[in-house]
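retry 2 of 3: previous attempt timed out while embedding heme C. Reduced batch size to 1 and resubmitted. Inputs unchanged:
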Amino acid sequence: MKEPRSLLLVLGSIGGIWIVIFGVLKWGEYLLNSKPPVLEVSPPSRSPDEPLPVLWEIPLFSAVDQNGQRVTTQDLRGRVWIANFIFTRCTAACPLLTAQMVLLQRAVRHPDVRFLSFSVDPDYDTPTVLKRYAAVWKGDEARWFLLHMEREMLYRTAAGLRVAVLPLDDPVNPILHSNLFFLIDQEGRVRGLYDSNDSEAMKQLANDALALAGGDRWLPASELVAEESAAQVGERLYASLGCAACHTHTTIAPPLAGLFGKLVTLNDGRTVLADEKYVREAILDPAAHLVTGYLPLMPSYRGYLTDDELDHLVAYIRAQGGSPTTPQSADVSLAVDPVCKMEVRSGNDTPHLQHEGQTYYFCSEHCRATFRQNPARYVAPAKQVVERERSPR
Ligand code: HEC
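retry 2 succeeded.
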């Protein structure tokens, strides 16, 4: 009777020890594992042309934005919005998350789309801190809300988006949070999850948001890269044509940084607005308006530059700052999109291009691309007027 019982005891304790060892190993594995031990949904796979699924309703939340204004779920009804989780002290994942957020704002030019960054660091990220952060990133603060919430509300909101926020005991990465972007529709329903590390997913997000908001499809790289490289090509031209040689010496020639949108006084006493047209003329026909205080030293570049080269030079000068198409005073200038005939603001953030010395403004990248393919078709009948009502100042 005694023998089997002690055998059982021995066997039992060996089993127990193994369970303990197994547990310790598993715990170590869990600690070592870089995968967050949080409930984290993953983006459903979907081909780009499939309709967006309706995933689930977003939770009700109330937060304070970088300007101290309250933002609630209710305020966002009727709008499409894109959200992510960040914190300003984060140097690991957040710089990329915020860079993507800012790129999305560029790609999704639709005025009704909103962008929300929920801070996961309520103790540190006060509205003031968030305001500073937004300024550093130069995001579109008219549409971008950086949100501070009470901790409990934050956890509830995260859980409602089916991700978790997890403070860690790690100085480098003190708070674990999701790297996903969420797309929410006008009725407060989650319509998509997008991995911020996947640039294709980010483009898809831009297009899905535009589709939901009823905008045109975003035409990526070709359009945006062209805009960027125009200024870069212009910079090379600027150096190789000798512009820099004179214009870096203020005693020789006026500095061009910040020129766009400035009022320039000419030597005949007139004051003119340095807009697109003025800058073009200054390059092609400098004698037509001499800047006061300067000698007529500048050669005319007419005949030396192709239309494209002139565009690039102007793009480069524009890239050096100033308020590109509007003077400091708040006049609202309107133009008509030559493709769809919609009235649009002729601001620098409106898609635009140069054609035969004229600036044309478009409601969307799509119209701009359509125009570019065959400008003659859109300018022939009636030359588009892009008059700016100059404010008397
Ligand atoms: C030989 C010196 C010289 C060179 C080279 C030169 N500029 Fe100028 N530029 C001037 C001077 C002097 C003025 C001011 C007098 C005037 O309005 O003509 C001026 C004026 C301008 C203005 C108007 C600035 C304002 O404040 O209103 C623009 C724009 C400009 N230049 C662009 C260019 C570009 C682009 C190039 C190269 C393609 C260039 N310049 C090459 C001397 C030069």
